[in-house]
């Protein structure tokens, strides 16, 4: 990825482009490079794409939860002076986006959720007592994707290192438990902003029934399916994912042209 990682105070993040802010929130095992396709595409379309590195392994253990990660995003947003932005989240990142929208509804113009937790998910930590077994970890990582070849050696090595680091493993488990505690089912009907749900038909972490439940509970949501796709559509089908997001943004007026039109009217 040809973007310089910025470090500014308490924040480490990627940023590219100018225009309507798209704030990307990565997942628990997610890497900033997972959304490389969005950084390549949307800055050329009138969007400012930002992705903070979430302090999943830096927070004190008792504060390692969805609520405090959402508060971190709030501080980042205030630091950057952002408003009327689109939150985009995969897996845990989607859950953090939902919690943020619950607590700060006036900040969020819309959301894009893909493979989001918040209702139900099978955690990758299941069975991790065998953490020293690299072949076993490889299979667990490959199972996240429809195409196991998406699980590169870099992704597998990073996951293996995380699981074999006691401090990181404890926080991984803490986050997984926090995600289960912070079930959003009762909150979703109150979220009236437009929501784009993009789901892999073969997602085994947050299965298709989860997407259907999100669609049912979120009053202003649209659900898009991608076939032959697992838990990370933005990685497995980058072009299709970007096109869906772009068309949804245009449909709901999240464009510079529409913004300028509203200012002049």
**CATH homologous superfamily annotation:** Alpha/Beta hydrolase fold, catalytic domain
Strand adjacency order, main sheet: 1-2-4-3-5-6-7-8
CATH class identity = Alpha Beta
> What is the count of helical runs?
10
Number of strands: 8
CATH fold-level topology: Rossmann fold
Number of self-contained structural domains: 1
Strand % is 15-25%
Q: Kindly report how far apart the N and C termini lie.
A: 40 Å
Task: Please describe the biggest sheet, giving its number of strands, its sense, and whether it closes into a barrel.
Answer: 8 strands, mixed
Order of helices and strands: EEEHEHEHEHHHEHEHHH
Helix proportion: 40-55%
CATH architecture: 3-Layer(aba) Sandwich
SS-based class: alpha/beta
Radius of gyration from the CA trace? 18 Å
Unreliable segments (pLDDT under 50, ≥5 consecutive)?
124-129
User: What general form does the structure show?
Assistant: globular
Q: Report the average pLDDT across residues.
A: 90
């Amino acid at each position: 990825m040809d973007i310089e990682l910025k470090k500014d105070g308490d924040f480490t993040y990627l940023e590219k482009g100018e225009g309507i802010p798209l704030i990307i929130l990565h997942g628990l095992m997610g890497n900033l490079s997972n959304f490389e396709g969005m950084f390549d595409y949307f800055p050329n379309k009138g969007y400012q794409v930002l992705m903070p590195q979430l302090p999943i392994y830096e927070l004190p253990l008792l504060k390692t939860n969805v609520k405090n990660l959402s508060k971190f995003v709030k501080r980042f947003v205030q630091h950057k002076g952002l408003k009327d932005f689109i939150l985009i989240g995969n897996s845990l990142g989607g859950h953090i986006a939902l919690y943020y929208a619950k607590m700060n509804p006036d900040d969020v113009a819309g959301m894009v959720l893909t493979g989001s937790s918040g209702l139900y998910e099978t955690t990758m930590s299941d069975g991790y007592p065998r953490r020293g077994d690299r072949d076993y970890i490889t299979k667990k990582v490959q199972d996240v994707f429809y195409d196991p070849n998406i699980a590169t050696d870099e992704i597998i090595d990073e996951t293996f290192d995380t699981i074999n680091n006691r401090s990181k493993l404890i926080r991984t488990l803490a986050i997984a438990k926090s995600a289960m505690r912070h079930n959003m089912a009762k909150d979703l009907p109150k979220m009236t902003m437009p929501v784009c749900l993009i789901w892999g038909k073969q997602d085994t972490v947050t299965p298709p029934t989860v997407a259907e439940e999100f669609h049912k509970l979120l009053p202003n949501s649209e659900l898009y399916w991608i076939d032959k796709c697992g838990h990370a559509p933005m990685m497995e089908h980058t072009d299709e994912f970007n096109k869906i997001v772009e068309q949804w943004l245009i449909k709901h007026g999240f464009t510079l042209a529409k913004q300028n039109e509203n200012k002049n009217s």
